[in-house]
Amino acid sequence: MDNVYGAWSKRRMFLAFSTKFFYPLCMTAKTASLYIMVVITVERWIAVCRPLQVHIWCTFKNSVRIVIAIITFSIILNLPKFFEYQIGYSDALGYWPKRGILDAEEHWWYYISYFIIISVIFDYLLPFVIMFVANMKVINELRKSRKERALLTTSLQKEQNTTVMLLVVTILFGFCHFFSMALKIFESIFKDFLNRHNEYFEVMIEISNILIIIHIGTTFFIYYFFSARFRNILLYLFK
Q1: Nearest to 209, CA basis, from 235, 233, 182, 176
Q2: Rounded to a whole number, what is the largest CA-CA distance in the chain?
Q3: Residue 74 pLDDT > 90, yes or no?
Q4: In angstroms, rounded to a whole number, what is the distance separating the alpha carbons of residues 13 and 1?
Q5: What is the rounded distance in angstroms from the CA atom of residue 44 to the CA atom of residue 134?
Q6: Is 185 in contact with 70 (CB distance < 8 Å)?
Q7: What angle is formed at CA 175 by the lines to CA 170 and CA 176, rounded to 5 degrees?
Q8: Which domains are seen in the chain, by residue range?
Q9: Distance between CA 156 and CA 148 in Å, rounded?
Q10: Mean pLDDT, all residues of the chain
């Protein structure tokens, strides 16, 4: 019995500390990877729609600066998440994660301004709109180029494959993250939803997490399927 209680207590302690510290770190990494994908999409737009500016804008120095800016932005954006949860403790229950500034009743200003508005804008709407608009412009430009030429050149074919790949990633992002965004908006409208229907909310949280995991897990296979260069580099690394 003591072994069971000890394992249960360790599990709760791990859950408390991982919620407090690992959760904001994971969200920071997610934001950084998301905006790197946005930058890659914009780079495709420059390469196809502004080819004369490619060698001016798409340089190694600019790439390093952009990556540093993305990492800095991701850290700043997700810094408040380190205070969203606190670690509670009691002799009866041991450690457990409890809501800090994420508590909608005590810190409604944070809950509405950051957790709902800022999060929805910068984690969902802004990156999705940028990727969608950039991909649409690239597709239109490729259609024009295809009409002007009788046959699709090798270079144009590669650009088209890359664009299709990024478009698939964008659609997958929109589909998998829409549920999470809708859940945040729904939670902001029905503030007592957590108290009245906690079990349903937990199920929807799990569905949202599964969809995000699907998005992250399938991105690799999309790259592998559409990008010959990605396949060649991968095969070279694992030789």
Answers
A1: 176
A2: 77
A3: yes
A4: 18
A5: 8
A6: no
A7: 100
A8: 2-237 (1.20.1070.10)
A9: 12
A10: 76
